[in-house]
Amino acid sequence: MASLEKHYPLPDAEPTHLDDGSSSNDSGYNGLDLPSTVPPSELTVEKQTPAQEPPPNGGFNAWLQVLGSFFLFFNSWGTVNAFGVFQTYYETNLLQDESPSNVSWIGSIQAFLLLIVGVITGPAYDAGYFRTLICLGTFLIPFGFMMTSLSTEYWQIMLAQAVCIGLGNGCLFVPSIAILPQYFSTRKALANGIAASGSSLGGVIYPIVFRQLYPRIGFPWATRVLGFISLFTTLISVAVMRVRVMPKQKRALLELSAFKELPYTIFCIAMFFGFIGFYGPVYYLQPYAINMGITNENLGFYLLPILNAASVAGRILPNFLTDRAGPLNILIPASLASGILALCWIGIKNLPGILVFAILYGFFSGGFVSLPPVALISLTPDLRTLGTRMGQAFFVASLGLLIGSPVVGEIVNQTGSYLGLQLFSGLTVFLTGIMLIYTRFIMVGLKVKIKV
Prior knowledge:
- This protein is mainly alpha-helical.
- The protein has helices spanning 2-7, 60-75, 77-81, 83-92, 100-116, 118-126, 130-149, 154-178, 188-240, 262-291, 297-300, 303-325, 327-344, 351-370, 372-378, 386-415, 419-445.
C-alpha cells in the first residue's frame, strides 16, 4: 500500500459507520488502511512530487517549453542549416581564393561541435546546469557572429564562425531535446517535431536577412544583425524555460556495452553515413544552380530558404505520425526518399526542376534529421541510460558531419563537376535507409514490445 500511496494520491475520506455505531471495517481499519483509532482530522495524504507525477502532456507551461526549445533549435541547428548562404558568399567574395572544400570546413566544424560538445553538456545538464548551458550558448552565438563580422582572413572566420558559434550551438543542443520529455510522454514526438522545426525556420530567416542586407549595408553589419537576432531569440528561451524535474542519478559519460547490442550499433553506423551525405545538397545546391547557369545569383540565394521552409513541414508531420506508427517506421522512408532525391538531382538541369528538388528534399530530409533522437528511445531497453546512449550516437554522427561536406567539396574541386558530389550524397543517405531497415528487422526478430 505504501508504494501505491507514493504514486497515486488518495482521496480524502471518512470512515463509514453502521447504524450501531461500529466501523464498516471489522478488522479495525478504515477505508484508507490506517488504524481506526486515528482521528479523521489527522489523516493526511502524501503529496506527490513533480518526479512522481506523470508529465502534463500539455498546458501553458508545457507549451512554453516547446517555444523555448523551438528557439534553441532556431539558433543551434538553424545556424548550421543557414551556412549554405555563407558557403556561396565566401566562394564568390570574401574567401574566393580558397577552395570549396576549405570553405566547407567552416560549416563542418560548426556542425561537428554542435554534436560533439553534447557528449560533455549532457552530464552537465544532468548535474543541474541547465540554465548555465543555455546562458552560455546565449553569449557564445551572438559573440561569434560579432567576431565574424570583424573577420577578413580564413583563420579568423574559422575561429569565430566555426569554433565560437559551434561551441554555443553545442551548449544549446542537449537542453533543447532533454527538457521536452519532462513535460510530454504521449505526445513527445509531436512536441519534438514542433520544436525541431525551429531549426528549419532559422535556416529560412538567417539566409534571407543576410541576403537582403549585405548588398545594402555590407557583410560586417549584415552579420551583426544576425547576431542581434540570435541574442533576442535565445533570451526568449532563457526567460521561459524551466526544468521540471532535477535528475537524481548522474549520467555516465560512456556505456560501451551498448555497442554489444547489434541494433544500436547498426543505427549508429547508419547515422554516420547519413550525416556524411545529408549536407551535400544543403551546402552546394546554391553554387550548383548558379555555376551551372540554371539561375542567377539573386534567385540562387533563395534556394536554401526554400529548402529549409519545406523542412518545417517535414519535421512536424513525420513526428506527428511517429506517435502512432513508431519512429523507425517513419525514419526509414524519410531516409530512402532523401537518398533517392539526391540521386535524382543528377538529372536536374532547369529552374522548375531545381525548385521542386529543393522543396521535396527539404521535406523528406526534415524527417530524416529530426527523428533519430526519438528512434533511439526504441533502441534503449533501460531509459535511465538514454542520455548516455544518445550522446554516443551523436558522437558517431558528428564524425560524419565533420568530414562529409569537405569530402564532397574536394570532389567538386578535383573533378570540376558536381556529379561525384551528387552520387556521394545520394548513395550514403540511401545506404542509411537500408541499414535502418536491417535494424528494424533485428528489432522485430528480438520481439521488442514497443513501436519501432
